[in-house]
Amino acid sequence: MPFTQLGLSASLLEAIAKSGYTSPYPIQSIAIPAILAGKDILGIAQTGSGKTASFVLPILQYFQSKPVGKNRQIKALILAPTRELAVQTGTVFAEFSKHLPRPVKSLSVFGGVSINPQMIQLQGVEILVATPGRLLDLVANKAMQLSELEILVLDEADKMLNLGFKEEMNRIFELLPAKRQNLLFSATLGKDINTITEM
Ligand code: AMP
To answer: How far apart are CA 90 and CA 94, in angstroms?
Structure first.
């Protein structure tokens, strides 16, 4: 199925063409229409499958019809297990959003570096890509709020659990509104992943 049949807007299709993608990868053909329809999804996907664009494109489209919300109220949160993945995902958001009529500001945050520049950069951010520990630090510092979150992505959820982020993830879930769209990506399906899908 070509990109033109997935329900994406003309400006997103133009951004995709500029990126050099010619046809969707299988996960994109399945996930993009489901996400645009507001469904929760569980994607079993390895790195390299094209899973990042499968959530980046519909999330950017979602924002195209939304007015800019209150400052420091995050509307879409992507949790990632590592700094590398957080940076990589932030780059994909920035790359696709730069061609869109309604700009959407995204930011990647992670630990191991000073928190102060991240607190300043959060100004105007609507989409946040974060590792769990640094996200909780930013919340504790009142750098932003998650109470109006609409979309949650757990990327490489199995790796997050393997790296011992379960307790931090539970604390984050408590900060999120119950009504939200949940997009879960994992390379494997296990007991812990099932527990997450029940939250
Ligand atoms: P990911 O699995 O999201 O890390 O993506 C793996 C690689 O595939 C990245 O370099 C993407 O830029 C590339 N990619 C994703 N979707 C497509 C597509 N539909 N056509 C060509 N390349 C793609």
So the answer is: 6
Please report, rounded to a whole number, the percentage of residues in the chain having pLDDT higher than 90: 87
Instruction: Note whether 95 and 19 are within 8 A (CB).
Output: yes
Task: Tell me the best of 3, 19, 25, 156 to mutate to test the pocket of ligand 1, counting ligand atoms within 8 Å of each CB and taking the most.
Answer: 25
Write the residue with the smallest CA distance to atom 8 of ligand 1. Answer: 50
Asked whether residue 195 carries a pLDDT value surpassing 80, the answer given is no
Site of tokens 């992670």: 110
Long-range Cβ contact pairs of 108-114 (< 8 A, separation 24 or more): 109/134, 109/135, 109/138, 110/82, 110/83, 110/86, 110/134, 111/83, 111/137, 112/83
The strand ranges marked E within 88-172 are 106-109, 127-130, 151-154
Query: Quick one: pLDDT at residue 199?
Result: 62
Q: What is the pTM of this model?
A: 0.96
